[in-house]
Design brief:
With 349 residues, the protein is of the alpha/beta class. 42% of the residues lie in helices and 14% in strands. Helix 11 links the parallel strand 10 and strand 11. The longest helix is centred in the N-terminal third of the chain and has 21 residues. It is globular.
Length: 349
Amino acid sequence: MAFPRRGDSYTECFYPALESLGVKVYEGIFAGRWLLQNLRSIDYVHLHWPSFFYHDQRRTKCLRKYALFLFFLALARWRGARLIWTVHNLYPHDRCIIPPLDGLTRRLLIRMTARFAIHGPSAEGEVRRMFPAVAGRTILIDHGHYIGYYPNFITRSVARLKLGIADNDFVFLFIGLCKSYKNVEGLISAFEQLGGQPVLVIAGKFPNSKYEATIRAAVARSRARIILHPGFVPDEDIQTYLHACDIVTAPYKEVLTSGTAMLALSFGRPVIAPAVGFLKDAVTEGSGLLYDASQLDGLKHAMQSAMRAKFDESRIIEHAKAHDWRQSAQRMIEGLPCLDRSGTSRATR
């Protein structure tokens, strides 16, 4: 039973791959009565972003959601279902309005979870440093590519024409949700220090109005060539931004796994990112540039290097293809103890 099964590009790619290998996947609904009626004969409950269960801007409602979350965990255990947690990040990027709940959730899940799915050895190392008790219960899986998931038929010339960018401009792209941990302001600052006449395109929704105002003000003050397109980017428009750019930037302050990086590689675009977690394994030589985020000018130097570097689009796409959802699903299955219908591991009988 998946929480969530749909509504996210990651889960919408992973679960069909899992089903193609013979696993029945049910879509979980986070409601008390529904859980009581349906959390039966389930071998595994699969979680992705635990904080989504209880996140709310109102303290009272947050506490009510958290009580339901505890009931959910207890019910799953009572029904004999085992927990899987795909660890997309160490802690929520949007911290709870009651901060201790985030830490409590991690402690509970580390105690109760049967297996932790993690994207690659570098990310696993960070998870084990933060949560040593997960040792012996991790499964290394790939973050699959998005080739074929999003529309991809537009040409570079047409994409640039739509955005008002000349064919000979060097274009950096930031795409996706614009949140403070993604360091959009740091990207603008680094970009302003570059020589030449590059272009920076920032496209994505700002969930926080104050942060949007900060970025809008920074763009307005800047004398650099910055194109800001605030707002949700529909699936059919993603290709426009990816084909118009030369390189995708992911200058995050904190990151364990990055779907944006895999999206860029899927379109044959190299990536600039900090050398941490999943990015250390996914962004290899020839597919982008990694920098030391602890260095003050690390991002700026990486952007300068990018303007001189040559990348092969076809090689990047071949690299992305190696990150296969079906292979990831197979590794997940192989890493789980087999259960009989009673929920008892056959290996222990």
